[in-house]
Design goal:
Largest sheet: none
Number of helices: 3
Radius of gyration: 13 Å
Number of domains: 1
Structural class: mainly alpha
Shape: globular
Oligomer: single chain
């Protein structure tokens, strides 16, 4: 994957994650829907960090994915 496309994918993840945070803070939807949105954003960012070999942020996003899954199970 070339560097330009990776940059766009990273920004997509940032936007998705911000939208997920807004859905919770503005109470737009049920919490579980927000967790699904977070899961998409964090999964995409994990892919980007893997491709970039940024292991610290990759590890952090693995933790976020785990938290998202726990949230989905807990709120589902």
């Amino acid at each position: 994957m070339n560097l330009t496309l990776l940059k766009y994918v990273k920004w997509f993840s940032v936007i998705i994650t911000i939208l997920a945070a807004l859905t919770i803070s503005l109470n737009f939807t049920e919490v579980i829907i927000s967790y699904y949105i977070f899961l998409v954003g964090h999964t995409v960012m994990t892919f980007v960090m893997y491709k970039s070999k940024d292991w610290s942020l990759f590890s952090m996003n693995i933790v976020w994915i785990t938290i998202d899954i726990i949230g989905i199970i807990r709120w589902g």
